[in-house]
Amino acid sequence: MRRPAASLMKLFVLGALAEEIASGNYDARQKLTVHTFVGGSGLLKYVGTPIVLALEELAHFMLAYSDNSATNQLIEILTVDRVNEFINKIGAHNTKMIVQMMPTKAHGLKDYNHTTADDILLFYKGLSNGFPKSVHLGCVPLCRKFFVASQPSFLNTMTFFTSDVQMRCLKGVAKHNFLSLGKYVYALLSTFRGKRLTKNVAHNRIMAQKSATDKTIFHDSCAVRLGNDFLCVVCLIQCDEGNFYKPLTKRYRAARRLLRRIGKIALNEFTNESGGVTENEK
């Protein structure tokens, strides 16, 4: 069943980027100037002035902070057609990118980026066991490398906090958008809160994860190490009566609780007070 993809589309943007780098068409350290900023999730929207970032840094913003401005910059250099080419290569035939992140109302009325749980699973299966032969062999190790660097571990977070790019972002916010400094810091700390499927999973067991939130959707996905294998879980929630932009609402809390419970059960780690799993939870 097709659902609005929202930020889950960033998985396929990553795949297209990694394949381009692996093919030698781009260098991960190649620098671009981000000059267009959009709303929604992310940090760059608070900077308020053009900033120069490498492709690998844009990928980090996209994965660690689900930054829409960074994602759009990557889509601009890759093109929507190139992202769709990667989608077709891995056989995700019910997924399509039509517009960039946070499109204008004119674009939004035409159509929306869509996907299915099965297609997201195809991406994670490729990440775990290898994409089809039509995809460059170097794509998988590069994707994994980007995911490892974006995991919300204490070491990764502190490394980013003290990085040059972080200092430049912070200076940009302080100088050009000072009133948003508090919002920037709040968004910067987002990696420590809001976990869904992987709430009870150790950082070193998570190979990759990506969530997506829009007004009416609340998605999550992950690939978790189980010994020498992987367990991939994809959950797509859509509720047209909800408003998942508001974390304090009943539906937001219920959806987050549901995903966390699914994550525990899928990993066989869920126990209630009696030490077992109830019939309803099964």
UniProtKB/TrEMBL annotation:
InterPro entries: Beta-lactam/transpept-like, Beta-lactam_cat, Beta-lactam_class-A. GO terms for biological process: beta-lactam antibiotic catabolic process; response to antibiotic. Transmembrane segments: none annotated. One of its GO terms (molecular function) is beta-lactamase activity. Pfam families: Beta-lactamase2 (PF13354). Residues 4-130 form the Beta-lactamase class A catalytic domain. This is Beta-lactamase class A catalytic domain-containing protein.
